[in-house]
Specification:
Blueprint: H1 2-15, E1 20-21, E2 24-25, H2 34-41, H3 43-46, H4 59-68, H5 80-92, H6 118-122, E3 126-132, E4 146-147, E5 153-161, E6 167-169, E7 174-179, H7 192-202, E8 224-230, E9 233-239, E10 253-261, E11 267-276, H8 293-305, E12 315-316, H9 338-346, H10 353-356, H11 377-381, H12 384-392, H13 433-437, H14 453-459, H15 483-487
Parallel strand pairs: 4-12
Antiparallel strand pairs: 1-2, 3-5, 5-6, 5-9, 7-8, 7-10, 8-9, 10-11
Helix pairs in contact: 2-5, 9-12
């Protein structure tokens, strides 16, 4: 085998114009072509040089990869000069450094016709609402060292049969999905490592480009397929999505298209929404003692705690520190939840929320009413120290106990969802809160276009579904005084007509939030109001 590898190396060297002697260097060798070496040895995993996922990689980082990544062991015959040449080629095409001013590329949004309620205009029999369960999903950029989270995305959808009254339906329908311009994951960046190490890390072997599933363990979803009916909604769990699309563009706000078909296979409704994922976990901000930040994390953990994690790589952090988001209960063998350990340790290290909850570029907290330059995370979640302390003193279980909307939005009916989290709570007419308002961390209006897609699609304005602000300058319109005169059965449609085909009552007990929400600015497309 070694003879074959050396033979291949000799043929490659000859093709690149290099000369070798049986006993060593022949002297004045030709300049090493780093681009050609990259094409021969690296492009198969990391893509063409111009769009390489390893732009800017240094010679030291490449050497670390060869030494520590099993799939790169075959490159151990590369000389120092050859590695430097590859690094130089990557440096020549290096991507600009991350900045906080990155904005997502424009989404393919529906055309805007202010004041038009599209389902009423088209007499649509169904509408479908779809949303990601968390509003952002973090994923490791690599899986050969320390692993926090797998690529794992979950999307819910509800289908409403329009009528008077409308009703949530699942019977006789199938719901399909596809990720727009994103059909595979394992070929991008170092995400192939997830499938290589899935058995060791998560105890299951997975077919390439299929994911884990904590809800239906026998079902392994890909980047297209069907959502399963789950009582009053449809759901797909564990889509192994990466933030790199098929064009090689890094974008944490990927787009999922959801299509509803009847029993005859006819499309009766379709929409799009954000399926977010970011690998922008910036451990390198502090863990810079090694070219591989995750290796530095393990080395420091071994030194400070007396473990031998480096000798067990890859290591799933949740194997010792309980992580409910991965379906675990309890603190784990370490005695500390992962969230408790990470937030507590880094509370005095100068870390910010956006260092881990992505990120300087991603800025995952993007609801315009709730965010700020730093994400405004602490307003709802508290500081890192407070977060850890609440877990330690048993007033919070990570991912199980979360902030409540009613803390700020008091005095509005149906906002207090009790022990049920916003992402699981049901509101008006049996529609989930997220169906009208959007995902957590991305409630409409959002700074990211695709988050607003359904509001734009159905009511032509980025407000919560059913808001009078879709047409009026206020989200409460002109109030209830002449509502039936303007919008009663057979009259001018309003945002309620996204689902309803007629409105016959001003009994606010039957209205969303009993018409108690605070008035905010609307489109103002209806004049004279």
């Amino acid at each position: 085998m070694q003879k074959n590898i050396m033979g291949l190396r000799f043929v490659l060297a000859a093709a690149l114009g290099l000369s070798f002697s049986v006993h060593g260097s022949s002297g004045a060798a030709a300049t090493i072509d780093g681009a050609a070496l990259y094409a021969a040895d690296c492009a198969g995993c990391h893509g063409a040089l111009a769009s390489s996922t390893k732009k800017g990689a240094t010679a030291a980082q490449i050497q670390t990869g060869i030494s520590s990544v099993s799939a790169m062991k075959s490159l151990s015959t590369l000389t120092t000069a050859q590695i430097q040449a590859i690094a130089a080629a990557l440096g020549a095409t290096a991507a600009p450094p991350p900045t906080a001013t990155w904005t997502p590329p424009p989404a393919q949004m529906p055309p805007s016709h202010p004041g038009v309620i599209t389902p009423a205009q088209n007499n649509s029999p169904y509408v479908v609402f779809a949303w990601n369960d968390l509003g952002m999903h973090c994923a490791n950029p690599s899986y050969d060292t320390a692993v926090i989270l797998p690529p794992y995305n979950t999307v819910w959808a509800q289908v409403v049969q329009r009528g008077n009254p409308p009703k949530v339906v699942t019977a006789g329908l199938t719901v399909e999905y596809r990720i727009v311009n994103n059909t595979q994951s394992a070929s991008k960046g170092q995400f192939w490592q997830f499938w290589q190490y899935a058995r060791k890390l998560f105890g299951v072997s997975l077919a390439t480009d299929t994911g884990l599933n904590l809800t239906d363990p026998a079902v392994h979803n890909g980047l297209s397929g069907k959502l399963l009916a789950k009582g009053d909604h449809f759901q797909v769990n564990g889509i192994p999505l990466t933030p790199i699309d098929d064009s090689g563009v890094w974008n944490p706000f990927q787009v999922i298209e959801v299509t509803v078909k009847n029993s005859r296979g006819t499309v009766v409704a379709q929409t799009r929404t954000t399926i977010p994922v970011s690998d922008e976990i910036n451990c390198a901000k502090c863990h810079n003692g090694n070219a591989n930040p995750m290796l530095d994390v393990l080395q420091k953990h071994d030194k400070n705690v007396g473990t031998n994690l480096v000798g067990q790589m890859p290591v799933l952090c949740a194997s010792c520190h309980g992580s409910p988001v991965l379906g675990q209960s309890g603190r784990g063998t370490s005695g500390k939840y992962l969230s408790e350990a990470i937030h507590g340790y880094h509370a005095t290290k100068g870390a910010s929320c956006y260092d881990c909850h992505p990120g300087a570029k991603t800025q995952c907290s993007r609801s315009l009413a709730h965010t700020a330059a730093d994400g405004n995370c602490t307003t709802c979640h508290g500081s890192l120290a407070a977060m850890a302390a609440s877990i330690t003193n048993n007033t919070k279980v990570p991912w199980v106990n979360e902030p409540k909307c009613v803390t700020c939005h008091a005095g509005v009916a149906q906002v207090d969802t009790g022990a049920t989290l916003f992402r699981n709570a049901i509101g008006h007419g049996g529609v989930y809160c997220a169906g009208c308002h959007g995902s957590p961390h991305a409630t409409v209006p959002s700074r990211v276009d695709i988050d607003n897609y359904q509001s734009q699609q159905y009511q032509n304005y980025s407000k919560a579904i059913g808001s009078c602000g879709a047409c009026h300058s206020s989200s409460k319109g002109e109030g209830l005084g002449d509502f039936l005169e303007a919008h009663g059965s057979g009259k001018r449609p309003n945002a309620c007509y996204v689902c309803h085909t007629a409105i016959t009552t001003t009994n606010t007990a039957k209205w969303p939030h009993q018409f108690q929400w605070k008035a905010t600015t609307g489109s103002g497309s209806v004049r004279g109001d």
